[in-house]
Write a structure and sequence with these properties.
Strand content: 15-25%
Largest sheet: 2 strands, antiparallel
CATH topology of the largest domain: Pemi-like Protein 1, Chain: D
CATH architecture of the largest domain: Ribbon
Helix content: 10-25%
Structural class: alpha+beta
Distance between the termini: 47 Å
Number of strands: 4
CATH class of the largest domain: Mainly Beta
Shape: elongated
Radius of gyration: 18 Å
């Protein structure tokens, strides 16, 4: 991992502030969702991007029972039925 050159303190509620230059660089806006991953010696934050439950595509998504599904997978599912 490459150091970003920023240091942040964790507040009493366990929160940190992502510095504005990083929010700008990664197009993070108010109310965006962040995914949190762990590695043996790190916590990794990633901007969440919804993707198809079946194939991982991020294009032409619809929701079925709260899960994202792309048009191609919907067509394939219809062919099965």
């Amino acid at each position: 991992m490459k150091p970003a050159g920023f240091f942040c303190k964790v507040d009493k509620l366990g929160r940190i502030v992502i510095p504005k230059p990083l929010r700008t660089k990664y197009s993070l806006d108010t109310d965006d969702t962040i995914e949190i991953f762990t590695e043996p010696d790190a916590i990794v934050l990633k901007k969440y991007a919804m993707s198809c439950t079946f194939c991982g595509s991020g294009e032409n998504l619809s929701t079925f029972k709260g899960k994202p599904v792309c048009e191609d997978c919907i067509k394939k599912l219809r062919d099965i039925i």
